Amino acid sequence: MPPAMRPQPSISIRRFLHTTRVLCHENPLGLPRAGTIPRMQRGLPQKRKIKDVAKVIAVSSAKGGVGKSTVAANLALAFARLGYRSGILDTDVFGPSIPTLFNLSDAPRLSDQNQLVPLTNYGVQTMSMGYLVDPSAAVIWRGPMLLKAVQQLLHEVAWSGGLDILVLDLPPGTGDTQLSITQQIVLDGAVIVTTPHTLAVRDAVKGIDMFNKVSVPILGLVQNMSVFRCPHCHGDSAVFGSSDQVKKVCEEHEMEFLGDVPLHPNIGEDGSGGKPTVVAEPESERAKVFLDIAAKVGARIGLEQH
Ligand SMILES: Nc1ncnc2c1ncn2[C@@H]1O[C@H](COP(=O)(O)OP(=O)(O)O)[C@@H](O)[C@H]1O
Ligand SMILES: [Mg+2]
């Protein structure tokens, strides 16, 4: 058995997290240090590519609960279905959703280079803080500890065989984590998610402003939870308001309107059941919306298969 596949000493990462290592800002994930891994740099990190990953996109919205994780997971699955080597990295340290969305919960093993080995489901490689901590435990890090953890998630994962595309599921806001990510890695672009509701659209504009300030190209905007089609009367309701505001924002910021994901109970249920729409209902109109968005994004960033 190659070393990377060999079972590692008992759930070492979880245990490390609960020992004195959590007090050490250099290594919040508690990965054992080997001579082969470059030591974390002190001070401001340098922008660099994620090893073995061709393209990286971030799925973002300044507001929480608008469907970032749902869209990110379905996009990663759509890329896999389109034939790309796809991965997803959950950078929401405080509220990781990828373990639930991909029905994965094992503690990741370490490679012989002491890097985290991703967990795979539905053909997508995944990594999340949620695999490293007890699902019900709150991560109560701040400042340097949080930033080091994000840095380790970005640079200390062994994406097996390399990836054509890595989707980053960002936490809400325009704060430390988002800035740290945009400063540390070469991002091929950001996809902004919003609902049509005024409060969400206002925050989406803040997200757009953040990416402009840090010179990350915005690939376009996804409108989520727009129209609800009643299963009984088949009438459409714009639950969170009309799409006018979102379309206006796209025009004002010269951004592409990438797609309109309906508010549909199956999308929520598929996600909480650990099998997102693109794999749960691959032939549905809803899945086609995600596939269409993935194709547009892929074309925008020059995504290629290897
Ligand atoms: N299009 C949709 N239709 C129905 N429910 C949705 C849709 N998009 C997201 N949801 C649900 O809304 C909630 C928030 O979504 P989530 O992806 O966790 O948002 P975020 O990552 O922005 O916080 C989840 O319960 C999710 O299942
Ligand atoms: Mg989320």
From TrEMBL:
InterPro entries: Mrp/NBP35_ATP-bd, NUBPL-like, P-loop_NTPase, YlxH/NBP35. SUPFAM superfamilies: P-loop containing nucleoside triphosphate hydrolases (SSF52540). Keywords: ATP-binding, Hydrolase, Iron, Iron-sulfur, Metal-binding, Nucleotide-binding. It comes from the Eukaryota. GO terms for molecular function: 4 iron, 4 sulfur cluster binding; ATP binding; ATP-dependent FeS chaperone activity; hydrolase activity; metal ion binding. It holds the Pfam family ParA. GO terms for cellular component: mitochondrion. GO terms for biological process: iron-sulfur cluster assembly; mitochondrial respiratory chain complex I assembly. Belongs to the Mrp/NBP35 ATP-binding proteins family. HAMAP family: Mrp_NBP35. This is P-loop containing nucleoside triphosphate hydrolase protein. It comes from Podospora didyma.
